[in-house]
Predict the structure.
Amino acid sequence: MKFGVVVFPGSNCDRDCFYVIKDVLKKSVAYIWHKDTDIADLDCVILPGGFSYGDYLRTGAIARFSPVMKSIAGFARKGGTVIGICNGFQILLEAGLLPGVMLRNRGLHFICKYVYVKTENNHTRFTSLYNAEQILKIPIAHNEGNYYIDAAGLKELKDNNQIVFRYCSATGEVSEQFNPNGALDNIAGIVNKKGNVLGMMPHPERSSERELGAQDGYFIFMSIVKWLKTQRAW
Amino acid sequence: MLKAEINITLKRTVADPQGITIKHALESLGYKDLANVRIGKLVVIKLNFKDKKRAEQEINEMCKKLLANPIIEDYHFEIKEE
């Protein structure tokens, strides 16, 4: 089983993701430079956080045209497992692999802190190791996490159970008070209709070891490993 | 040479936190009579050809493909002789 961490100019969470896969999960992982187009040997693609292309124009707007994105779109179409974290989520939105868009945070501040999110859907290949409605303590670090989609799009997300994580209180109350960035409906993470592409603003790679203060993110990666194991014998 | 000036703004239905903050700042400077402030982007592109029709078509394509995100942004542009 092999993971790939895509590196765009300006990615800065690539090494954290690589480290978690290699040293915490003990799985095979490679960096994928954004100009590479051969990703045929990968089972899971990770689009890491950072500031690809300096966030110029709009977050993710230029990265989506990197050569590797064509291969990733093809990989996703065939059901391949893709996870975009923070800037990776923004890139997936700009690429149209996930619906909606990110606006600037409501308060205009870059927010870097621990938040709580509620697992709204634990029937995905990314969240199967969480209990239903499990509350995760997990850090966010972004300036554009104010998720937006039109009313019809939001209805579709709900109808298809595509909302995976929502910002909440430590006890699981989902309300405006516990919405750090103004995201519509407190949305922190969504999957595509097929369920093979996840985008999330919180950073599971920064919360995969107890030494780092939280390890709730670890089970995202372990859920993926568990799912990949069901796909073939390794 | 032709010059295209492209204005990109958030759609009216999309909240503009920057605009709201700047409106508050202007009001605190004493400008109390403001209905609304919206922030946008100006992109200026100089073209190496003179065919206005081609310019309009290509600039339109550029806006759709990259410069604006149609989910949240509107754009309009003017093409001038330089």
Notes: Chain A touches chain B through 19 residues (CB under 8 Å).
